[in-house]
């Protein structure tokens, strides 16, 4: 069988949300005057989750993998040939978390690959990479592990929690199981890099310094009205662009997709993406008010929620789409869901 004819499937996802839900009133008590307070980018969700003070990204991935082990057995995880990871905030800055995750999960994979540029679209990028590696003969199964752990660390710093941006992110983790199989085939994947926008997301510290330098100020994302306007325009354009590209190649109109699963930066993006693809709200998974902005964990957590609640049936076409950072990357993937076995 040639690589071109090998079918690769997303067999399952399992997820983890740390701690008890934290209500919007938590941040309301710290809120101060902020020129961005009324911006639609920062309208708070009702709830979100935060990592515990001593909880690592590796801890989160181990807890997320428990569902896969329960449903598919320990060997489905320990025997995977490929581990693809993305961590919003690596536990150590000099290396990614892939090696530690592999060890914690009892894996001895041939490939351990840490992705960083994928951002909020990292799960889609992971699907493309896993699909290509498995189809080319590099193994039979792969895990895609993502951890969003910035909400309870960066955004809950004493001086940062007062800002409008702090109330939106939530923490969570997910692990996807990908394999040579025709059960839930990955139909197509589109990934696009917009390198011209790569420098538009910055860390703001007062007084200014490099992110690694010692100093009194706590860092956050450097938002301005001008940057927000650009990010809104890019996100509104890029997610439909990659979605339409995938739909065109698989021969399906976006309006006929059975389920849309996206990242969830805010309510405005969710509404605009549905409108652009001509989809009703009932066919777009939305956990924003329960989880906030989950960054890269948003797509797998939303998909797991859809499967668990019966919103997606065997044979349904699922479209996953997201953009990252200030618009330097976007991706979409279509899957014919075969059911959770």
Automatic annotation (TrEMBL):
Keywords: Acyltransferase, Transferase. The keyword Transferase applies. Residues 247-337 form the Beta-ketoacyl-[acyl-carrier-protein] synthase III C-terminal domain. Gene3D superfamilies: 3.40.47.10. GO terms for molecular function: 3-oxoacyl-[acyl-carrier-protein] synthase activity. The keyword Transferase applies. One of its GO terms (biological process) is fatty acid biosynthetic process. Residues 117-195 form the Beta-ketoacyl-[acyl-carrier-protein] synthase III N-terminal domain. This is 3-oxoacyl-ACP synthase. It comes from Mycolicibacterium brisbanense.
């Amino acid at each position: 069988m040639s690589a071109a004819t090998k079918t690769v499937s997303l067999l399952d996802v399992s997820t983890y949300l740390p701690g008890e839900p934290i209500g919007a009133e938590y941040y309301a008590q710290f809120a101060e005057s902020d020129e961005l307070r009324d911006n639609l980018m920062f309208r708070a969700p009702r709830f979100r989750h935060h990592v515990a003070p001593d909880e690592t990204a590796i801890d989160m991935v181990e807890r997320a993998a428990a569902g896969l082990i329960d449903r598919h057995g320990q060997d489905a995880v320990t025997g995977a040939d490929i581990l693809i990871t993305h961590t919003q905030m690596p536990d150590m800055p000099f290396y990614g978390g892939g090696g530690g995750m592999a060890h914690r999960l009892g894996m001895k994979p041939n490939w351990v690959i840490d992705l960083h540029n994928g951002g909020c679209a990292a799960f889609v990028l992971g699907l493309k990479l896993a699909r290509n590696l498995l189809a080319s003969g590099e193994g039979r199964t792969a895990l895609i592990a993502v951890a969003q752990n910035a909400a309870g660390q960066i955004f809950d710093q004493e001086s940062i929690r007062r800002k409008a941006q702090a109330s939106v992110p939530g923490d969570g983790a997910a692990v996807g199981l990908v394999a040579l199989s025709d059960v839930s085939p990955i139909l197509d994947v589109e990934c696009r890099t917009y390198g011209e926008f790569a420098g538009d997301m910055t860390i703001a510290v007062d007084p200014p310094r490099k992110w690694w330098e010692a100093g009194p100020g706590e860092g956050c994302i450097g938002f301005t009205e001008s940057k927000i306007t650009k990010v809104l325009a890019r996100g509104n354009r890029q997610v439909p662009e990659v979605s339409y590209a995938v739909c065109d190649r698989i021969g399906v109109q976006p309006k006929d997709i059975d389920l849309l699963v996206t990242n969830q930066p805010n309510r405005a993006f969710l509404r605009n993406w549905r409108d652009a693809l001509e989809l009703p709200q009932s066919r777009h998974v939305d956990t924003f008010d329960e989880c906030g902005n989950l960054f890269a964990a948003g797509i797998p957590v939303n998909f797991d929620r859809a499967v668990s609640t019966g919103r997606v049936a065997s044979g349904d076409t699922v479209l996953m789409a997201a953009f990252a950072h200030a618009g330097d990357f976007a991706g979409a993937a279509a899957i014919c869901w075969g059911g959770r076995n």
